[in-house]
Amino acid sequence: MTKRDMIIERGKRLQKLRKKIGLTRLAFAEQTGMSPHTLKALELGDRELTPQKALLFSRLFTNLFSIFLGDDAHEASFEHLYYGENKKLLEKKGELIHINDDTYLQAEVSFFLTNPSYSIFKIQDDLMEPFYNEGDIVAGRKIINKNQFGYYQGRVCIIESSGGDKCLRRIIKCNGRRILSCILNTKSNQAIEFVEEIEALSVAQAIWHWHLSEFVSHT
Fold first, then answer.
1. What confidence category does residue 28 fall into, taking pLDDT thresholds of 50, 70 and 90?
2. pLDDT higher than threshold 90 for residue 34
3. Are 156 and 169 in contact (CB under 8 A)?
4. What does the angle CA 40 – CA 43 – CA 48 come to, to the nearest 5 degrees?
5. What's the pLDDT score for residue 116?
6. Are residues 195 and 186 in contact, defined by beta-carbon separation less than 8 angstroms?
7. Cα–Cα–Cα angle for 119, 209, 160, nearest 5°?
8. DSSP 8-state code for residue 70
């Protein structure tokens, strides 16, 4: 199989996964922060799906859409998306690209830092323990439409205030941009109210969560 053939096959696998979860190109492009034109080029093989993008897509499929894949969830893995059924053959030829934990972490965090469609936040306190600890990093898709804030009641979100500050809180109630939120750690010694109201610029449900131990173990 030529390199051109491999690029086309990767695009087909990406398109197959997108269709399995029931998203149009426009909808999936919005989830990944890319243009529909770029996604189309990747699916048709007019543009190469790099290992880095394949890694990010596979994690997105796994984290957000695995429920739609059912028994075909294995198809969302990096190995399947990038190599298809030829992984063993490529390994024999020495062409297999190995993705280690460091690469996973660096690629994911870099993606969220550079993508304005998402919000990323490093936790600096103990207010959301025991589930979210100081030094952990969380990320999620940014929502700026105040009419959609209510969908996230009861969920832990990154809340960006009108002043530009960010915090991680559980949303209790929304009234337009006025969000009533709470911390999780009632035993925290920090001088802060358990419940507070925030004038929000955006919210992002904390879907991605990297623990501090993951970064410490790879430095």
1. confident
2. no
3. yes
4. 100
5. 83
6. no
7. 25
8. G
192 vs 93 pLDDT, higher one: 192
Residue 86 amino acid letter: N
Asked if residue 216 has pLDDT above 70, the reply is no
User: Cα–Cα distance between 168 and 182 in angstroms, integer?
Assistant: 9
Query: What is the DSSP pairing of strand 178-182 with strand 195-205?
Result: antiparallel
> From CA 167, how far away is CA 184, in angstroms rounded?
13
Domains identified in the chain and CATH numbers: 3-99 (1.10.260), 117-215 (2.10.109.10)
Both tokens of 181, joined, read 């939120």
Output the pTM of the full model: 0.60
- Conformational region of residue 66, where left means phi above 0, alpha means psi within -120 to 50, and beta covers everything else: alpha
pLDDT digits (tens, 9 = 90+) for 103-132: 666 666 777 777 788 899 999 999 999 999
- Round to whole Å and give the CA distance between 96 and 200: 46
**109 Cβ contact list (under 8 Å, min separation 6):** 120, 137, 139, 210
pLDDT of residue 218: 44
Residue 161 DSSP SS3: strand
210's enclosing H/E stretch is: strand 208-210
